């Protein structure tokens, strides 16, 4: 299977995010070139882009599926993939890099158990997203564009299962960022 530009960009974006998280883990301070509140606003915009696409994408794909119109299903699957370019990738980068800048103000990831948990869950989410979820999304787009409804159904189900699994830790990260209290440590 040939990987789309969206898939390749997602992998590169996640590798960059892994590098950023490694810097944070290693305790290497990140310079905060902007005011803390600007970093916080950019972080929130990033989360909104990322989570918004995670929530809305499955909705329009479901609507297309239940319409029964194969052209609409293929279009929705392609738009889902394109939105990873325009929404998810910038959202991940905004959230990660601005989060790293703010983490320094809070004493780093090792001083805040909730921040450590958030980082661990983001890493888990990223690994599953760039392997299993991305594989099934690519299959979904290809099968839908070929008009193979049974293969599209299989890919859609697998994508939905794994995408939902990725949504759980992301939801927990969202909670940790708001509550600033660890769920599992301390």
Outline the fold blueprint.
Layout: H1 5-25, H2 36-67, H3 70-105, H4 113-146, H5 149-179
Helix pairs in contact: 1-3, 1-4, 2-3, 2-5, 3-4, 4-5
Describe this protein's structure:
The chain is mainly alpha-helical and 186 residues long. The protein has one domain. It is 83% helix and 0% strand. It contains five helices and no strands. Helix 2 runs antiparallel to helix 3. It is elongated and about 55 Å long. The model has no long low-confidence stretch (mean pLDDT 92).
In short:
The chain is mainly α and 186 residues long. The protein has helices at residues 5-25, 36-67, 70-105, 113-146, 149-179.
Structural class: mainly alpha
Q: Specify the overall morphology.
A: elongated
Strand tally: 0
Roughly what percent helix? Answer: over 70%
Mean pLDDT across the residues is 92
Succession of helices and strands:
HHHHH
The residue ranges in which pLDDT falls below 50 over 5 or more consecutive positions are: none
Biggest sheet layout: none
Q: How much strand?
A: under 5%
Question: Distance between termini?
Answer: 45 Å
Please count the helical segments.
5
Radius of gyration: 18 Å
State the domain count.
1
Which key features would you list for this structure?
83% helix; mainly alpha; 5 helices; 186 residues; 0% strand
């Amino acid at each position: 299977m040939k990987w789309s530009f969206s898939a390749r960009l997602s992998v590169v974006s996640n590798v960059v995010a892994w590098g950023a998280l490694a810097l944070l883990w290693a305790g290497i301070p990140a310079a905060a070139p902007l005011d803390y509140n600007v970093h916080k606003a950019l972080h929130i915009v990033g989360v909104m882009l990322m989570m918004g696409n995670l929530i809305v994408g499955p909705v329009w794909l479901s609507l297309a599926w239940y319409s029964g119109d194969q052209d609409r299903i293929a279009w929705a699957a392609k738009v889902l993939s394109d939105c990873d370019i325009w929404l998810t990738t910038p959202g991940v980068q905004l959230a990660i890099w601005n989060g790293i800048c703010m983490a320094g103000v809070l004493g780093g990831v090792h001083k805040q158990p909730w921040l450590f948990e958030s980082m661990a869950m983001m890493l888990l989410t990223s690994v599953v997203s760039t392997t299993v979820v991305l594989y099934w999304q690519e299959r979904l787009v290809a099968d839908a564009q070929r008009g193979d409804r049974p293969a599209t159904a299989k890919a859609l189900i697998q994508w939905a299962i794994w995408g939902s699994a990725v949504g759980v830790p992301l939801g927990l990260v969202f909670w940790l960022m708001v509550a600033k209290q660890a769920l599992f440590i301390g």
